[in-house]
Amino acid sequence: MEFVEAVLLTVITASTPLLLAASGELVVERAGVLNLGVEGMMIVGGACGFAGAYLTGSIAIGALCGILAGAALSAVFAAVTLGLAANQVASGLALTILGVGLSGLIGAGYVGQKIDGAGHLYIPYVTDIPLIGKVIFGENAFVYFSIALLIGIWYFLYRTRAGLILRAVGDNHASAHALGYPVLRIRMLAVLFGGACAGLGGAYLPLAYTPFWVSGMTAGRGWIALALVVFASWLPFRLMVGAYLFGGITILQLHAQATGLGIPSQLMSSLPYLATILVLVAISWVRGRRGSPAPASLGLAFVPDR
To answer: What's the distance, CA 303 to chain centroid?
Structure first.
């Protein structure tokens, strides 16, 4: 039972940054914008988040720094793709390269430094319940916020007028513009929100997952978050299932190595990315027959009539 509890706890901690970043990207893509710079925003959010927490001694301030850093970097993407109608794919890739470079510059003085990580919830007697106590009532604030965030996104998209407008912009920006909705403003707000979520997902890594900073610690999680949005068919609750599934695959490599199965560590380390490729290929094959549920205007630049 203790082993199962340990596995569940590590799966949840490994899945949280994916869930945070993918939740923001889901809103961005629902608005019709394809931002491939999630990895860059995450790594900058991680560097700024750790720097803020290290200098102030506050995890909350560190998380806020990560959010602001991700939003600031996404603002650059919004200015280029929405303001100048540049190609979204190329701009997103450039954003990732920019983010990796900035994170190296910002985090250069903090490599190897340590902080006290985010605290965990503890409710007397309740948290001590075997198996479910620590899993449900013993997590840190990032875990609970990621779940609340996803529920809030679901409610916004499917239970509010503003969410309906955002989905309409993603499905047909020309019709939404003809009805008088500010397409560019809606997309800009969605991009900023997605950047803030990615920055928080990146900040989670040095603030809670491993409370120290090393360069490149996102290790491709931004790309997995992008794949998760496709895996979830742009639906919030499927996103949660996918995030915990991919988190489980990530943790599988650690437990497989600990049991001494003799499988090369390089092969085990590649499992999350191999699973991402296989899932995307399978989804593409299925949707080739049934049609894609992606927003119809996804990745298309919008230039309003003058």
So the answer is: 28
Q: What is the pTM assigned to this prediction?
A: 0.92
pLDDT at 180 over 60: yes
Rg (CA), the chain: 20
Map tokens 């949280």 to a residue: 16
What is the DSSP secondary-structure string of 184-244?
A: HHHHHHHHHHHHHHHHHHHHHIIIIISSBB-TTTTTTHHHHHHHHHHHTTT-HHHHHHHHH
The predicted pLDDT at position 266 comes to 67
Question: How many CB atoms lie under 10 A from the CB of residue 193?
Answer: 20
Report the percentage of the chain scoring pLDDT > 70.
Answer: 92
> Of 246, 217, 214, nearest to 229 (Cα)?
246
d(CA 8, CA 130): 12
Q: Note the residue count of the chain.
A: 306
